[in-house]
Design goal:
With 998 residues, this protein is an alpha+beta fold. Among the domains are: 2-61, no CATH class; 422-584 and 594-618 and 967-983, no CATH class; 698-763, no CATH class; 767-922, no CATH class. The chain contains 33 helices and 26 strands. The strands form nine sheets. The protein has a seven-stranded mixed β-sheet, with helices on both faces. It has a three-stranded antiparallel β-sheet with strand order 3-4-12. Strands 13-16-17 form a three-stranded antiparallel β-sheet, with no helix packed on it. Helix 20 (505-523) runs antiparallel to helix 21 (530-557) and helix 25 packs across helix 26. The chain starts with a helix and ends in a 48-residue tail after the last strand. The relative contact order is 0.10. Residues 958-998 have a biased composition (Acidic residues). Pfam families: Plavaka. Residues 674-700, 916-998 are annotated as: Disordered. InterPro entries: Plavaka.
């Protein structure tokens, strides 16, 4: 017994190696479900093993006390450091004036004001000073520039403009030039702090109503690749916009004897948002906007910095709450009529965008002032005829925009800062609407089309590291899908929908899907040239034509029915209205289902025409996409779990301050460590070096003895002449001959010179890493695996008789433009001597995504017997043909279009794809060339081959109303609304947020 006790005392931590390991593992598994094994590694490597870590310092340690040291800094030695309290958060209360119908006042001071408690915000100039003082000159672009691509090394005049980020786009360059003209004689160098705002409300928990509405400030002087990294702390949390409290109704009841109407509440929410922005854009910011402020940068140079607001990224509901109401003019940047949204891509549409931009001019401000005087001083009705006549023509709202209030006198037009939102407007907007309507059509057919579609999506193999994920659930249900999931659905849609509709609608849908994928690929490029922007404009024209053809032919000739989920959501809304007393009578019979039309009068469709201009002004769309703000939301949600739920907004502000301070200390520690321990000359080769083309494992675990293996598989067609082909391949590589498809043959005597060591033993490896240069001149990596992601591309060996046809497959000519179909490939006959062979991995360009041609079916003709070259789950059958998914990612898209800047090594080979573009793209013809009517009496709008022939000089009078519509984003009558928010993903639409009724 004594021996057992002694052993227990000495080895109580078994089976762990020591007590320390046991204690760490116990801490890991007892500290909650949010920890990961990587967190445990960080605890050991970054905490316990640090030379500064001392156990004796933990005596009487209390985490709460140490955290408070960050919140309240009392050390006078830090007064001039980055940690001074002035760089922190402020808490104030704001007051908003409350109008009420038929209640008048003599003066503005008499208007009752509702108090909003606890606005947490940071002063933007203090944020900018702290960011600039800590900015590395290597990463911070103070001088904008233009970047060019020299196509031909021997022709210095063959240049093309490149757009990669805000600091080499037109708006930054123009603003910098204006600044130098106005302040170029200053004692100090004048530079711009390029402000980019993001703002969006987000749910903080899966259950309950806890939400936050953060405002993020990013600096466009930083590369977008730095801004998008959460750990870089490039996102400065500027404010948390509070909600309009439910106590507002008690306030109105006490002041006016009545509760506020829905129109008053909507107005107050707008007022609240702009009061918050008035606090943020304080007098200090306004003064700095006009005169600049001095900052000493890390290089020791004092510069005069001028803040300039370039972009404001938000989803559509927030754009509405910021600028206008949903009415005749649905766009925040131009005055297009709602009924003219369907003219996307036409000359008239382009004319409207360029000549009828919204402008915060004196006339507009006078209208707002007059409207506010009417509702506040005269007790006017918010939804009355007077305001409709005054503000309705521009869909304006009686709220003075904070940006206009603070900066209009300095020449800032706040309408120009709103940029398109690819995530919500296309992936979760136009594409989602088209995909859902296609599902409605298939559902109305009543056959197995829905099941076939779901089965096809499930059979699509994944690709890359999360580029295309496995479709596990039923795709038609669209349950809990994020924007990336809808992107995957689009990129793989053409083979899936093939053959599900009858002619000619099958061809119409195929062309529509191809143009949607083309437009999406161009709009989402991370690097643009003048050519790609021109192609985007032409694609917008073709996409508008394709959507109009789809709406006028397919949607009118094929029946479409609401999905069961939409019927269920409609029933829930009816019950809710009945319970609220907003419906006077309850239907006693179920209404007959009617054909569901496709709505083309949505802002999200109209917004597609603004992307080309926005890219020229502000750089590629990923630089201002709301996806950046959505990623920062993850940090807010993580902090919410650690904050006190009684006042979580204050907790979010505290945690932001703590984490930012700790990150700054960590950066200083890294600098100190770099000085104390300079890097050695040896490189770490534990991972694949970027300059290396490929890498495989060098392990010898999976040994294959050729003699035994060939005997076992001697009847397999894939192993026919295996050893002979292997030695031919090795001889070709050993002699350094150029690859010719292994058609070079050798004599038996020559092959006998090749000796495979260890009695003919080779080794099998399952994974091969391929490094390649992307179209935007960055290095990326594909991982090839024998079970999945085993397909790759190489440069073909041209057939002398037909250079466009390889020996293994054929790519149809002009597949990329007029045919609007994906290239198809297939297996050669197994009896062909060239059906199986060897390839030098150095010839691999990158992995490729193949999707079965489902409509062609499966066959056993290519390889009629069991073979090792098939996976077990393929059941001795092959797909007859495969589609090459050229839309799988942006790099693949540019390889099949040609013109990728980073594709230098294969530029001459893929340049032929440029010839497959539409003639106007090949000739670089500007879009929307003037179209002159051939007849003086020709009407302004004429239907022509599924498109519109438009007189660009005609007045924007709008098209005739085709049907009554509601103000909902999806159109149609009130009984045709989309399914409820409980059936949608968090990222799907923001219409369920507090400001949705604006």
């Amino acid at each position: 017994m004594d021996a057992a006790v002694a052993n227990l005392k000495q080895n109580y931590f078994r089976p762990f190696e020591n007590a320390t390991s046991y204690l760490l593992i116990r801490w890991f598994y007892r500290s909650g479900n949010s920890k990961t094994l990587l967190d445990l590694d960080h605890l050991v490597q970054d905490v316990l093993l640090k030379p500064d870590f001392k156990l004796e310092d933990l005596t009487n340690f209390r985490a709460a006390r140490e955290s408070q040291r960050v919140d309240v800094i009392k050390d006078k030695t830090l007064a001039n450091s980055l940690f001074q309290a002035a760089n922190g958060w402020y808490k104030i209360a704001i007051h908003i004036p409350v109008p009420f119908e038929q209640v008048t006042y003599e003066s503005i001071s008499d208007i009752p004001r509702f108090k909003i408690e606890s606005l947490f915000y940071r002063r933007p100039i203090e944020v900018l000073k702290a960011a600039l003082q800590n900015a590395s000159p290597k990463e911070f672009h103070l001088q904008p520039f233009k970047m060019y691509w020299q196509h031909n090394e021997n022709d210095p005049e063959d240049l093309e403009r490149i757009y990669t980020d805000l600091y080499n786009a037109d708006e930054f360059i123009n603003e910098h030039n204006r600044l130098q003209q106005e302040h170029g004689t200053s004692e100090h160098e004048c530079v711009i702090a390029a402000i980019m705002f993001w703002s969006d409300s987000t749910q903080l928990a899966n259950f309950g109503t806890a939400s936050s509405w953060p405002v993020y400030l990013f600096l466009g002087n930083l590369s977008k690749y730095v801004r998008c990294m959460p750990n870089a702390f490039a996102a400065h949390h500027l404010a948390y916009i509070p909600k309009l409290s439910d106590k507002i109704q008690d306030f109105c009841q006490g002041k006016f004897g009545k509760t506020a109407t829905s129109h008053v509440l909507s107005h107050l929410r707008r007022e609240l948002m702009h009061e918050v922005w008035k606090v943020i854009l304080d007098d200090e910011f306004t003064k700095a906007y006009a005169q600049g402020f001095l900052v000493t940068f890390t290089d020791g140079i004092v510069r005069r910095v001028f803040p300039r607001i370039f972009t404001y990224s938000a989803d559509y509901p927030e754009k509405r709450v910021s600028t206008f109401q949903l009415g005749k003019r649905p766009c925040p940047t131009c005055l297009v009529l709602k009924e003219n949204v369907k003219l996307l891509g036409t000359a008239r549409d382009a004319h409207t965008r360029s000549t009828k931009c919204r402008d915060d001019n004196r006339q507009y401000q006078d209208k707002i002032k007059k409207a506010r005087n009417y509702i506040y001083m005269n007790g006017g009705i918010l939804n009355g005829q007077y305001l409709e006549k005054l503000l309705g023509p521009e869909s304006a709202v009686p709220t003075r925009n904070a940006f206009s209030y603070r900066l209009s006198e300095l020449g800032f037009n706040f309408f120009s800062m709103f940029v398109p939102d690819l995530l919500h407007e296309f992936e979760l907007g136009v594409w989602k609407a088209i995909f859902k309507h296609l599902i409605r059509i298939l559902y109305a057919q009543g056959d197995d089309s829905i099941q076939i579609l779901n089965d096809r999506y499930r059979r699509i193999p994944p690709f890359g590291r999360g580029t295309i994920r496995r479709f596990h659930a039923n795709a038609h249900a669209m349950k809990k899908l994020a924007g990336r999931d809808f992107e995957d659905l689009l990129q793989c849609s053409i083979p899936v929908f093939e053959g599900l509709l009858s002619p000619p609608h099958d061809n119409i849908v195929r062309e529509l899907l191809f143009e949607l994928a083309t437009w999406h690929g161009l709009a989402k490029l991370r690097l643009h040239t003048d050519t790609t922007i021109n192609s985007l404009e032409h694609s917008t024209q073709r996409l508008g034509e394709a959507i109009r053809k789809f709406e006028s032919e397919t949607c009118t000739q094929l029946e479409a029915r609401d999905l069961p989920a939409e019927d269920a959501a409609r029933a829930r809304r009816k019950l809710s209205r009945l319970a609220a007393g907003t419906t006077t009578s309850e239907p006693t019979t179920r209404r007959a289902k009617k054909n569901r039309g496709f709505n083309m009068k949505t802002y999200k469709l109209h917004a597609l025409g603004h992307y080309a201009k926005a890219i020229r002004l502000f750089g590629p769309s990923d630089g201002f996409s709301t996806q950046t703000g959505e990623a920062e939301h993850q940090k807010v949600k993580r902090r919410y779990k650690r904050a006190s739920k009684s006042n979580f907004t204050q907790g979010l502000a505290k945690l932001d301050h703590r984490e930012r301070m700790l990150n700054t200390i960590g950066e200083q520690q890294s600098v100190r460590d770099a000085i104390d321990n300079p890097s050695s000359d040896e490189d770490d080769l534990s991972t694949t070096a970027p300059e290396v083309h490929h890498k495989r494992s060098h392990t010898t675990r999976n040994k294959v003895e050729l003699a035994k293996w060939l005997d076992k598989n001697k009847k397999d067609p894939a192993c026919k002449n295996f050893l002979q082909k292997l030695k031919n391949h090795l001889l070709t590589r050993l002699q350094g001959l150029e690859y010719d498809g292994d058609e070079q043959d050798y004599s038996a005597a020559e092959r006998n010179k090749v000796i495979i060591k260890e009695n003919g033993t080779i080794y099998q490896h399952k994974t091969l890493h391929i490094n390649y240069t992307t179209y935007d001149m960055r290095r990326d990596q594909d991982s090839l695996n024998i079970r999945n992601n085993a397909d790759f591309m190489v440069l073909g060996c041209e057939n002398k008789e037909n250079p466009d046809q390889g020996r293994a497959h054929q790519i149809p000519k002009k597949w990329n433009s007029f045919g609007r179909c994906l290239p198809r490939i297939g297996f050669v006959d197994y009896e062909d001597d060239l059906a199986f062979g060897f390839l030098n991995p150095a010839l691999i360009i990158r992995a490729i995504h193949l999707i079965p041609c489902f409509d062609s079916g499966r066959t056993k003709l290519h390889l009629p017997r069991r073979s090792i070259c098939r996976l077990a789950e393929e059941q001795d059958e092959d797909w007859d043909m495969f589609y090459v998914n050229i839309f799988v990612d942006r790099d693949m898209f540019m390889r099949f279009r040609g013109g990728g800047v980073g594709h230098k090594s294969i530029q001459n080979k893929i340049h032929k794809f440029c010839k497959d573009r539409w003639p106007e793209e090949r000739n670089n013809t500007p879009p929307h060339s003037p179209v002159q009517p051939t007849d003086e009496n020709e009407e302004t709008v004429a239907q022509l081959e599924g498109s519109y022939l438009i007189d660009p000089n005609a007045e924007d009078i709008g098209l005739p109303e085709e049907e009554a519509e509601s103000n909902s984003e999806d159109g149609g009558d009130d009984d045709s609304d989309e399914e409820g928010s409980e059936d949608e993903a968090d990222e799907a639409d923001s219409d369920d947020l507090e400001y949705a009724d604006y």
